[in-house]
Specification:
The complex is a heterodimer.
Chain A: H1 5-8, E1 14-20, H2 27-37, E2 42-47, H3 54-60, E3 64-67, H4 74-88, E4 92-95, H5 107-115, E5 120-124, H6 137-154, E6 166-169, H7 170-178, H8 186-196, E7 201-205, H9 220-239
Parallel strand pairs in A: 1-2, 1-4, 2-3, 5-7
Antiparallel strand pairs in A: 4-6, 5-6
Helix pairs in contact in A: 4-7, 6-8, 6-9, 8-9
Chain B: H1 3-7, H2 9-31, H3 37-55, H4 58-67, H5 72-120
Helix pairs in contact in B: 2-3, 4-5
Classes of the chains: A alpha/beta, B mainly alpha.
Chain lengths: 250, 135
């Protein structure tokens, strides 16, 4: 019988958090791949106010499903996932895209990063030895600028600040369950937040695929807006005092 | 130079009336519970300022003189603009806070609904799914 996720806790297990907005087409393949490649991984799909059958498709695959009443954006969906993981007592979480661009065979590498004591493990596309991952010029430029910005603010060099293929420790799950950035390009903001709070962050090279279905949510004007917004966040964050919010380790 | 006091007595009269009407509208909204009392104080103060300016137009000239502003309406304009900017900033802050709160509410509602569903067993059209993924 399926045990109660809310009370039992899941020591030693990991949960995949999959934020999904209208991803009924790509999601079944992603879930099937996870089941085949990493059968021990629990899965929660957070349907972010989807208007299609995303939640039904996920339920049919037998995974946990959380349905947001309206669209919160990727950050809100992820935070919901972190809350779910914290409530259910999962000590490790992996964020996976619903569109199939993340390769399930790489999840082990991310989780292995956590086992070395890191709180945040970022799957890095550009460290990919095969060099397969390509981005457009505008997006590439913005990502480069983010890289420089993060480096200036944190003093650390990251090759891929906006990767959405990441693993989180129990401490970071608890922290992000309360304060995950809510707007687009959340990953850069989350990275800065984690660094500022003193969490340990490592990068692990991963291979990624091209997107399978669904629309990439990047348009140049939007990208420019969020770039400016994030710059403001970065600048304000640079002067903000560090708050003692890190929770005690259980 | 006494711009307001000398030139346009009708303006004072109108200012005073506008202040009184504003206060009446605010009080009415508060009574109907359509406006929180904390916001009403602000606008009541504006109404009072209108009435005061209407009743004693020399006040503005006096204030302009004291602050070294040559043309009294400039002072009025500056103070009014600053006031409105502050109010709008406050409202933006309020909206941000409300957004954060409604986001948390949405997340909690979604989680509770999911929990309920997993606890009570699926009561609707998905008899087969087991909540947990198993190989």
């Amino acid at each position: 019988m399926a045990d109660s996720a809310a009370d039992a806790g899941h020591p030693g297990r990991a949960i995949a958090i999959i934020p999904a907005f209208n991803e009924e087409e790509a999601l079944p393949a992603v879930l099937a791949e996870l089941r085949a490649v990493v059968p021990d991984l629990d899965v929660v799909v957070v349907s972010d106010g989807s208007r299609d059958h995303t939640a039904d498709v996920a339920r049919a695959a037998g995974v946990h499903v959380v349905e947001l009443p309206y669209n919160l954006g990727i950050g809100g969906a992820l935070q919901t996932g972190f809350r779910f993981a914290r409530r259910g007592g999962w000590p490790r979480a992996v964020q996976i895209d619903a569109d199939g661009q993340h390769d399930a065979t790489q999840i082990a590498a991310l989780l292995a990063g956590l086992d070395t004591g890191a709180d945040l493990v970022i799957g890095t596309r550009f460290a990919d030895p095969s060099g397969a991952y390509q981005v457009g010029r505008t997006r590439g430029g913005a990502m480069g600028a983010m890289r420089v910005g993060v480096r200036l603010l944190s003093g650390r060099r990251f090759t891929d600040t906006s990767s959405g293929f990441r693993a989180f420790s129990a401490d970071l799950i608890a922290y992000f369950a309360e304060t995950y950035p809510s707007e687009y390009m959340d990953s850069v903001e989350a990275l800065l937040l984690a660094l500022r709070e003193g969490f340990s962050v490592v990068e692990v090279p991963v291979t990624m695929r091209e997107r399978q279905a669904g629309q990439a949510s990047h348009r140049n004007v939007r990208l420019a807006y969020h770039f400016v917004r994030l710059s403001v966040v970065m600048l304000s964050g640079a002067t903000r005092r560090r708050a003692p919010v890190r929770e005690a380790v259980p | 130079m006494n711009v307001l006091a000398s030139a346009t007595p009708r303006l004072h009269w109108l200012t005073g009336v506008a202040g009184v009407v504003l206060m009446l509208v605010i009080l009415r909204l508060v009574r109907r519970r359509q406006l929180r009392a904390k916001y009403s104080l602000l606008w009541l103060a504006v109404g009072v300022a209108f009435v005061v300016l209407g009743v004693s137009p020399g006040l503005l000239d006096w204030a302009a003189h004291r602050t070294g502003v040559a043309y009294a309406p400039d002072l009025l304009f500056l103070v009014g603009t600053l006031f409105l900017v502050l109010v709008v900033m406050h409202l933006s802050w309020e909206v941000s806070r409300l957004e954060d709160r409604s986001k948390i509410l949405a997340e909690e509602v979604a989680l509770m609904r999911a929990e309920l569903r997993e606890h009570t067993g699926r009561r609707d059209d998905h008899p087969g799914d087991a909540g947990r993924q198993t190989a």
